[in-house]
Amino acid sequence: FAKKIKIVSITFHYINIYKKLSKCKICYGNLTTFNLSCPFLSQTYHSERHTGQYYTLPAAHIQKLFPHGLPPRFQLQIKTFNEGCVMVRPPALELISYLKKADYSKPPLRYILYGDVGTGKTMCLSHALHYCYTQGWLIVHISDAHLWVKNCKELLPSSSRPSRFDQPIQASQWLKNFKITNERFLSKVQLGYVWTKRERTEKGQPLGELVDQGVNRMKSSSDVVGAVLRELRLQAGGATEGEGAFKLAVAVDGLNALWGKTSLKKEDRTMCEPEELTLIHNVRKMMKNNWSGGAILTALSQTGSLFKPQSAYLPSELLGEEGFDNMEPFVPVSVSNYNEKEFESCYLYYLDRNWLQHSHSRSEEGKKELIFLSNKNPSILERLCAFL
Amino acid sequence: MAASGCRGVRSILWKYGSYGKNLFVSRSKMVPQVKCFLIFKNLAAAGPQKFTQEFIDKQVEEFEVGKRHLANMMGEDPETFTQEDIDRSIAYLFPSGLFEKRARPVMKHPEEIFPKQTAIQWDAEGRPFHFLFYTGKQSYYSLLHDVYEKILAIERHQDKMRNKGLFTSDTKQILLTGSRWLLKEEIEENLVENISVQDYMRLIQLMELLLSMPYCSLEEEFILKFRKQLEVQSSKYEIPALQYDPQGVAFSFADGRRKSAKASITLRDSGSGNITINGRNYLYYFPVLQNREQLMFPLLFVGMSGRFDIEGSVEGSGHSAQAGALRLAISRALLSFVSEGEVEKMRQAGLLTADPRIRERKKPGQEGARKKFTWKKR
């Protein structure tokens, strides 16, 4: 049965290439829930008809775009299956449709993906981000803002401002990832910035140099991050068409970390506020919609959050008053558990990849058990199937 | 009236005082909370009778009189005063806080209280009455003799039928389903004699031989004396009533308990498998897989997993116990949606049995229920 699917999917694969070449509307025939291994198909063609189907992220894209972005279990899955397949789901499609229709001369729209634990917010965000990448946008992706507010080993007082704290390790790590993702832009963007008394970057230097400086000199990396973000903000609107123009996609996962509490302590053993961290402060500035020419995609996350109950998943609960006021107005996109069609698709995908080894899981009874035990929650289902 | 009533009460107390120490042979009543085992006393070891027959008769008389007095005291009709009424009245008049049920005051027929004993087996000259006295187990061997007599009688009957030409193999068979042979202990109790395991097996073999003959229905009465009816278990469960919504949707309530967790649920028909516990989705209330499996088991067993909506509330104890309580509640609620045969299957699967395990008490001189203090050699 698995072979049949493969053959069918391969034949459709070729049919699709053919149709893409002839630039006509792509039709998937009777494929409702099966795999769709078609790496060339870009997201511009995804529509509601394709909900529940999987599409493969090209390996090159994964390496470049997501050095740090994907959830760790999904990275393991990519390694095991030797391919990264993402399911097309309605929240992601909604987000992409908004991105297509938005007016980029106006201030950026803020999208917040929210939902219960394990319903797929990070994956939808990654899907949308992949779309932006294929469209040639510049990606600023903060994979998990929670990592910046807890478990920091080094917390240096900031060199530029007295009341702030730097996180050199996290900042340099992020700059490295930024470099990998946006290599092609680094030589194009021009800037000039003075940021310490001793070091300065002349006007007209490409962004790449600044990033390199930040990576090499850990002490000032947080300030470099701030500088980079500010430059991008100023230049995203960038009226000039041609080489200099680019659209900016700011993606933050774990948005509630920016306005929550930290678990970091200052030297005098008092708790650190998020405002006092340079990185957080700069990202908050990014979140304001006083620039133009891009979009802000965010996702909330309860799993890494500090001091929030597990039942909280709505934006008002997780962001708190301050965060909510800052982020208003925003476009909320809700992510929920799989519906029946999506569950079918996921189940068949695992069967196809021989991930469900236990013979009982192939029967109807086994499927009902899986539905019950996971309540069609994507992450729980994945964990369940992992030991079957 | 008061004096005789006093005497009756005094006799009860006397019985309770001296003989409360003995283990009374409990008959078919099985106390539900205690583990089901029958208590047997070694009757033969008591030796020949300590109480004379006259004494027993006197006790019986006193019991009857006392029963009538008790009925008058309670204001009930003495003619129709049953043993259950007696138990109820005694529990009311002598409330006892003792945990051990067998230590509480009891008023029963002397036959149940005084153990059966053997009378003196020989006459004044020392000659035994029974011809099998010198075998040592006279009642047992006389029983075997009786059974063999019956076998021979049936064979003679068979021959007679054959001679007449009316011999048929398909005669009326004795119904043996729903009953079992008496246990060795029960037979010992009937014979007031100790028998060994081999003796018991021999007796059962003989009875089976009797049963294997075509015309055994002639001795049906005799055989049924040695068989004990088993209770039909599944008829004991009370099925919660099926109620209907204004929209016509069927639903039922049920409760369940496990270890000090109490759960109560509403099972609604034509749902989609949503389960809400204490207002939260079951996926978030029971993050542990094992607990969700416990919830799933009754529905999956009956095959109706996507059909019901369950709304439950549970409190007390820990997460496993809460899951167990919910499982019992779901099984009980399902009884009203399910057929008779399914009820029996559920009972055999153990879905309807309340788990009797509770936390064991900590004993003095020990760290916990079982853990002892560190043992020091010196």
Q: Which SSEs are present, and which pair or pack?
A:
The complex is a heterodimer of chains A (388) and B (378).
Chain A: H1 2-21, E1 54-57, H2 59-65, H3 72-81, E2 84-87, H4 90-101, E3 109-115, H5 121-134, E4 138-142, H6 146-149, E5 156-157, E6 165-166, H7 168-181, H8 183-186, E7 190-194, E8 200-206, H9 207-216, H10 221-236, E9 248-253, H11 278-287, E10 294-299, H12 315-327, E11 331-335, H13 340-352, H14 364-374, H15 378-386
Parallel strand pairs in A: 3-10, 3-11, 4-9, 9-10
Antiparallel strand pairs in A: 1-2, 5-6, 7-8
Helix pairs in contact in A: 4-5, 7-9, 7-10, 9-10, 10-11, 14-15
Chain B: H1 2-19, H2 53-74, H3 83-93, H4 110-113, H5 138-164, E1 179-181, H6 184-191, H7 197-212, H8 220-224, E2 227-229, E3 243-244, E4 250-258, E5 261-268, E6 275-277, E7 280-281, H9 282-285, H10 289-302, E8 309-315, H11 319-334, H12 340-349
Parallel strand pairs in B: 6-8
Antiparallel strand pairs in B: 1-2, 3-4, 4-5, 5-8, 6-7
Helix pairs in contact in B: 1-2, 5-7, 10-11
